[in-house]
Please model this.
Amino acid sequence: MSFILRRLVFYVVAAWVALTVNFFIPRAMPGNAVQSIMAKFPNLQPSAYQALEAMLGVGHPGSIWHQYGSYLDDVFHLNFGTDVTQYPAPVSTLLAETIPWTLTLVGTATVIAFIVGTGLGIVAGWRHGGALDRLLPGLMFLQAIPYFFFALILLELFASKLHVFPLGQGYAEGLVPGWHADFIGSAIYHSLLPALTIVLTSIAGWMLQMRNVMITTVGEDYVIAAQAKGLPRRRVIFTYAARNALLPQLQGFALALGFVVSGALIMEIVFSYPGIGELLLTAVTSEDYPLMQAIFLVITFAVLLANMIVDLIIVLSDPRARAREATR
Amino acid sequence: MTAVLPISANTAALPGEDAQPGRWRRMPPKAKVGAVLLGLFVLAAIIGPMVAPYDPSYQDPSPALSLHAPYGAHLLGTTQSGQDVLSELLVGIRLTLELALLVGVIATALAVIVGVTSAFLGGVWDEVLSLVSNVFLVIPALPLLIVLLGSLQTKGQTATIIVLSVLGWPWGARVIRAQTLAIRNRDFIAAARETGEKTWRIIAFEMVPNEVSLIAASFVNTVLYAIGASVALAFIGVANLNAWSLGTMLYWAQSQQALELGAWWWFVPPGLAVALIGTGLVLLNTGIDELGNPRLRDATSASRIAGYWLPPADPTPVLAEVVQHRGKLSGFLRSFSRSSLLDDAEKGGHR
Amino acid sequence: MSAHPDQAPVAPVAGPLAARPDTVLEIRDLSVVYRTPGGDVRAVDKVNIDLAAGEVIGLAGESGSGKSTLVYGASRLLRAPALITSGSVRYAGRRVTEPVDVLTMKPDELRRLRWREIAIVFQSAMNALNPVLNVRDQLIDVMHAHLRIGRDEARERAASLLDLVGISRERLRSYPHELSGGMRQRVMIAMALATDPEIVIMDEPTTALDVVVQRDILAQIVELKERLGFSILFITHDLSLLLELADRIAVMYAGQLLEIGTAEEIHREPSHPYTKGLLNSFPSLRGPRRELAGIPGSPPDLRDPPPGCPFLPRCGYGTAACREVDMDLLPVTSSQDPSHVTACPFVLPQTPALPGIPEPAMPQAQQETEPETAEELGA
Model:
């Protein structure tokens, strides 16, 4: 129990750090952020000017602690301010439109890649030196390719040249989003290539990692002992070797989550996929600061949440983890 | 009454002892390929800009040369505005590698300092530093980088290097700290302490030399991260878009719709360069890993009997069985195999 | 299992075991090498051992003598780069109708033979137990693999196994890291006995434990052996342990067997110079003080063993003729044990010691008490 509590406290601290960094950056940076934004968007109304000032802390509406307090309050109420580029749309609305797309695409693809990659890694580790190991150099190359570049290649090949998949977008033009078969079918069709990209590039990493952990685990005494006991091969591989190898593998998964999500976001840009990635691009190109900050917070919280879940799984699977923390 | 049989003196390798000669030969083939690959790119980085046929920023005004496919005068074709892709590539490799290596050096140095100190000092310092490392490890790097760099007016090379280094040390620090903790309790450190060696000397001369391969691996990983992050940042536009780096090339290719216009020569070379540099780094890293953990090494002659590979977790092979079952082919393969035992068995037993 | 017609160089596997009728394990001519880039390391070189039903054989030797390699090789548990280059390991326990050769078995048969017939108690119980499963699950795993047993029956049997080794039933739900060293070793023993094996191989089971716990565990092992009737192959570097525990002792050096005999004979009249040196190397609690003599030098490099006796460089009695010795085990005629054999044809118990080499002196008082204890425990 105390272990879970400690981890929870850690995540709260991490979230708080993210929030605070977010809060202080515009105030710490040189130059008048508000002025430059106003210069870019001359058609904003005076009320926008005031709202921006309040958000970025210019013109001192109260002490800094007061601002901090109201900032935290805003965040908790999911009030991320008003967007500048698509004024007067509130940022939270924009986020709400795009999050589901990213969540389904990236979430599903990452989980699939992890499961398949880990499975292949188990086999490659058990049969160290066998046929699967010949794939290693190719996999390492695959792992080194930036997601978005791979996306470009795949798009070029399968969409431009071979016309197997659509050339980007979330769904066919002209369709109205809603819960009907046409739309869902089109959405799935359009998500296939992006999902394939994520799976293909990340699977190499999971497989390599699991293979290495598995090789070490297979050499452990308790696996040899399990074979000496005449246990069925399947049991030795999965319950004795893989189950132990999974623990560091899951830890690696948690660590890599941040990178996987970031990479996937950028990949979305290539596909013009209607997810957070595109929003991010808009924010960056137009220096839409409120949007940038909000996206950062949303992604961070999502990753922290996912990390917490994986931590929970690890604790539940490893009897030593509970004991180790309990005796601290 | 315990009688211990006279045990022969079995000295394990003394710490800090590293066979200096033959280290290149001892490296597994994967690492060598990686090193060669990287070497090529480093060479390109050094002589690239001098060898480039054109000034990358020069925009050839003739409309025929806009988005031209590769041919004699422009080996990698031209961009939308008539710029030579090859020249951009050569300059870009240098810029990207420069940035990545600098970040690698700075971040790894920070990681070593923080990791070793926090492990050595222990107590409150350790807790605090570990907490800071873990927090910055768990917060996703790219969005944070975007927010940090995005708020700067100028997104120059220096700023990028600083920001990437600041976010790049926690990973290495964590790994080095774990290793230092493990070594700290070893006997030779206690011995050094007992003989009164000063703490900093212990750190510098006893501990760090033992972690060299770990530090090397950490450096390679950091460079990998720096390349990935800087290219990704540039791709979405969070960089100095007037400078030629591999990332900005991709940015311009994307924003000028190179894909839709079929100009593959614009985005494939820079992306491929990034992928190859990355592959070189990963191969090198795997080689370093295998040096430290021999178990990971590809099963070479160890798992091969009579030229055949056997799953290492299978029951111990029996020579007679292997020879019998691989009978026909073994004759053919004997010419390639290095199995001394197979030859022995043919000569009728050994002794 | 009939011999394959093309299998010329390997000894025939059919037929009853050559040795005594109650032999359960017959190892003949077993050789194991480790293949390294620097050459093949001959870890075990043409070893012959017979184990009878209910017998305790102690396998003694320094580290690197090959004793562990011998038994793990015989069970084919060694991983690459190990290779078995010759010999046969024939098993003839109560449950098999005719002798089977472990080295030529199909993987499925091997799996069924393992543990059910030949179980192993490993040296380090902490490492040999699966960290993520509790004690009961690991015991049940073994049972399900070999016995046709229902779930409840298996649980009850697991509990009674813990009773057998003197551990509280509450520990069924414990994980390996929650148990003390002694408890873990007892769990290992319980697990070894879970399927009522014919042979239990014990690989230095008490080396990692403190002396008090050692005593307890050894006493437990002896008691269980009496009760259940299995044979034991006991590996250790601690010869003194074997003098009390074992029926027969086999001394190994540099991958070869140097001497085999009953514990009493080895103790009373060791024949091989190496054995003499070993017995000379530990002090006795009673009797006169004498100078402790170790054995100077170190074992040979097994990659390129010199011809003849591997102990020659360190042997006080060695001569040039020792290089021609073919290391066959010859009977010790002066021994009261008819099966007492030695690899040294030159040095017999009556050979006067060379100057400078002290005789292994066994004072009369000790000689009277020692055999008694051995009888109590083992015979």
Summary: The radius of gyration of chain A is 24 Å. Residues 27 and 54 of chain A are 11 Å apart (CA to CA).
